[in-house]
Amino acid sequence: MAVICKAMANGLLFTLSLALLGWGVEGQGNGRNKKEVSGQATVYLGQNRDIWRPLMHTTVNLSEIRSIKSSFQVRTFDPEGTIFYGDTKNGEDWFVLSLKNGICMMQIKKEDLLVSVAGGPKLNDGKWHTLEVSNQGKFVILTVDGSSGLEVGMQSNQPEQVLSGELRLALGGILINKEKLIVQFGPQMDGCVQEGNWLNISLPWEAEVEELWPCYQNIKPGSYFPGTGLAIFNTSVFPIEADGEVRIELWGDFHQMDGTILSINSSGQQPMLILVTNNITKEVTLTFGEEKMSMKDTFRRLVITFLTDSLQVLQDKDDPKTTTFPISPVSHPEYLTTWKEGRLAIGGLLGEVDENVGSQYLTGCLEKIQVQGRDLDLDLAVKHTSVSSHSCPA
Fold this sequence. Notes:
With 394 residues, the protein is mainly β. It folds into two domains: 2-216, Sandwich (Jelly Rolls), CATH 2.60.120; 223-393, Sandwich (Jelly Rolls), CATH 2.60.120.200. It has helices at 2-9, 335-341, and strands at 27-29, 35-37, 43-44, 56-61, 69-76, 81-88, 93-100, 103-110, 113-119, 129-136, 139-144, 147-153, 166-171, 191-198, 205-207, 219-221, 223-226, 231-234, 246-251, 259-265, 273-278, 283-288, 291-295, 301-306, 310-316, 321-326, 343-346, 349-350, 358-359, 363-366, 368-371, 374-375, 383-384, 391-393. The chain has a nine-stranded antiparallel β-sheet with strand order 1-2-15-4-13-6-7-8-9. A hairpin with a 4-residue loop joins β21 and β22. The chain starts with a helix and ends with a strand. The model is unreliable at 1-31 (pLDDT under 50).
C-alpha cells in the first residue's frame, strides 16, 4: 500500500494556470528528442495521440519522496478517461485514477492483490473540482472538493517489502498493457488538470508530443472542430429502423461555423450527402445527389431524415420549415446500401478514393449530435483527429 501511496503522492505536481487557445507551453529538449515540461504546465488531457499513451511522464527515486499526498484540480464534460497513473517495480505494482460514467474510479495492483473501486459525485459538469489522494496506513483515500470520495483498504499476506528503486508517473495514459486493468474503460479524456501538488517533486516531465495544447479559459458542452481534423464512423454501427428510417440531428449556431459539417459516402463513390456552412455568406448548403438546398435563415437545430422514398430536412426555428426531396435513382441509387456499408464523417469531407482522408474541415462548435436518436460520442470514432469531443470554448 505504501507503494501505491507513494505512486500517488509522488504523482504529479502541476500548478496549472488556465490559458486561451494559442498560448504555448514552455519546454526544452533533453537530448533524447523529448520535450521537457515543467510540472507546473497547463495540461489538456485530450490531445491527439495513441489513446492509451501518456501525454507526459516522469521517473523519480523512491528515496526522494517526502510527501504521501497529492492534490490537483480537474475540469471536464467528458464522462470517461484516464487522469493519471503511477507504478513501481517497472509496472509490477501500479495505480490508475480515471473517470467512468462521470465518477472517479481507482484501480490498484499491489503484489497479489487487484482492487477496483468507483464512487463519489459526478465530476463531468464542466466545473473545476479539487481531488486529493493520500495514503493512510493500509488505506488509499480520495477526497473530492474536501469531502469523502473513495476509500480503499488493502492487506496482503505477503511480507511487507522495503521500498526501493524508481517510481514512474504518467498523466493522461498508462504504462502497462490495458489488458491488466480490472475494469476496461475509454482512456481518452477531453479535460484539463491544474493547480497540482504532486508529492512536492519538482523534476521535469517528458512530453510525448511536440507541443502541449492549452486549455480554454471557459468552456461549454459540445464538440469543437478547430479546422484541422474530423471524426469518422462506420455507418454500419447505426442500425436502420424497421421502417427504413435514418435520422441525424445537429444542434448549434450554424452561421458561426465554417466548413463541411458532415458528409456520407461509401468506398470509391462520390459523397451521397454533404452539409456545408459558410461563415461569410451565412449560408448552409445541403447537397444530396443531384439536389441542392440552400438555407440562409437563422436556426439552431437541423434534422435530416432518410425515409424509404424521400429525404426530409427540418430547420428548427421560430417558424419550423421542412423541405422534402424525393429519393430516386436520379438523386442517389440504393441509399440504404450506402448507409449500411458507408462512412459518416463529422467535421470534414471524406475523400472520394481514400475515405480515411478528409478535407474542407469544419471550424466551430456542434453543441449536440444525434444519430438514430442517440448522442454521438466522438471518442468512439474510427478516426478522430484534433477534435475536442465534449467541450467547446465559450
